[in-house]
Amino acid sequence: MFRSGFVSIIGRPNVGKSTLMNRFVGEKISIVTPKAQTTRHRIAGILSSESYQIVFIDTPGILDPAYKLQEKMMEAMHKAVQDADVVLYLTDITESPDEVKSRISSLQLQVPCMLAINKIDLLKSAAGEDEERTVESFLQAYQAFPAVVKILPISAQEGWGLDQLLEALIEYLPEGQPYYPTDELTDKPMRFIVAEIIREKIFLLTREEIPYHTAVVIQSYEDKETLTRIRAEIIVSRESQKGIILGEKGRMIREIGRLAREEIEQMIGRKVFLELFVKVRPGWRENDRFLSSFGYTP
Ligand SMILES: Nc1nc2c(ncn2[C@@H]2O[C@H](COP(=O)(O)OP(=O)(O)OP(=O)(O)O)[C@@H](O)[C@H]2O)c(=O)[nH]1
C-alpha cells in the first residue's frame, strides 16, 4: 500500500518549522535565520520513499497581523491548514502549553493534529541529569488534551526524535498515489529559492526593521554556457533603508551578494554571476499591487 499526503507544519514564529522541513527533505528548501518571521510563503518540501510520499508545507509563523504583508502571511498559513491531511503543530520549549492548547483549539482543525515540541536539545543542556523528568513534565502538561493525536519531543537541529515523528506521520497519511515526481524536492522553481537565499542573507546581515521591509524579486535568470546569470532587485520601503542595504561604499550589498552567490553556486553546481539592485517602493507592504507582483499571494 502506498500512502501520500500533505503535512502542514504550523506554529509560532521561530520555533523551527523551516529547520524541521529541511531536515526531513535533506536539502535547504526553506531559509532559516535566528530572527522571527523569516518564512513568508507556503513552501513544499517533498519526501518520497518506496512506500510513501509526504508533502511537507512550511508556513509563516502564526501572529496577529499588523500590516498587509502579514495578513497575506496568515492567509498562506490558513490555506496550508485547509489543504492538509495532517497538521503538524510545532512548538518549542519556551512556549507555554496553555498558549499552545488555546492556539490549536482556535484553529478548529478538521484533520488529525500532531504536536511536536522542538528544541529539546536546549532542555537537555539546561536540565542535565533531570533531562528525562523535564521532558516528561512537558508531556504531562498536554495530558487530557484530545485535540492532538500524538505528542512528540524532538530536536529538529540535532535530528533527535525525528524517526519516531516520521513514523507517526506516515500512520496518519491516507492511501494514495504520489502528488509529485518522486525525485522532486520542492514545488518551488529555482528562481524562487534564489530570491529566498538573498532574502536570508539580508535577514542575517541587517538589523532592526530592515529585514521586515525587504523583498527580493528576480528580474532575470539565464543559464548561459559556462555560468548562470541572475539579476535581482532588493525592494525596500524607504530611501534610508536603501542606504543601509548598500552600506558604506557598497560594502553591505557586496557582502549580501557574495554570501548569496556562494550558496547558490553550491546548490546548482554552476558558476553564478549575481547582480543586485536596490529599489525603493514606499509602502509596498501595504500595497496589494506590489505584494502580488512580489509574489505574495496566498
Ligand atoms: N537549539 C535548537 N535550535 C533550533 C532547533 N530548530 C531550529 N532552531 C533554531 O531556531 C531558529 C528559528 O528556526 P526556523 O526554522 O527559521 O524557525 P521557523 O519556525 O521556520 O521561523 P519563522 O519563519 O519565523 O516562522 C534558527 O536559529 C534555528 O537554527 C532545535 O531543534 N534546537
Write the H/E string, N to C: EHEEHEHEHHEHHEEHHEH
How many strand units?
9
Helix content: 25-40%
The shape is: globular
Radius of gyration equals: 20 Å
CATH class of the largest domain: Alpha Beta
What is the spatial order of strands in the main beta sheet?
2-3-1-4-5-6
What is the beta-strand fraction? 15-25%
Which residues sit in consecutive blocks of at least 5 with pLDDT less than 50? none
Average pLDDT figure: 94
SS field, number of helical segments? 10
What is the fourth-level CATH superfamily of the largest domain? Answer: P-loop containing nucleotide triphosphate hydrolases
Bound molecule kinds, no repeats: guanosine-5'-triphosphate
- Structural class, by secondary structure, is alpha/beta
The biggest sheet, with number of strands, parallel, antiparallel or mixed sense and barrel status, is: 6 strands, mixed
Distance between the amino and carboxyl termini: 33 Å
CATH architecture of the largest domain: 3-Layer(aba) Sandwich
Describe the structure.
The structure is a single chain. This protein is of the alpha/beta class and 298 residues long. It folds into 2 domains: 3-171, P-loop containing nucleotide triphosphate hydrolases (Rossmann fold); 190-293, GMP Synthetase, Chain A, domain 3 (2-Layer Sandwich). Helices cover 38% and strands 22% of the residues. A 6-stranded mixed β-sheet has the order 2-3-1-4-5-6, sandwiched between helices. It has a 3-stranded mixed β-sheet with strand order 7-8-9. Helix 4 crosses helix 5 and helix 7 packs antiparallel against helix 9 (251-268). The longest helix is centred in the last third of the chain and has 18 residues, at 251-268. The radius of gyration is 20 Å and the shape is globular. The protein starts with a strand and ends in a 5-residue tail after the last helix. The mean pLDDT is 94. The protein binds guanosine-5'-triphosphate.
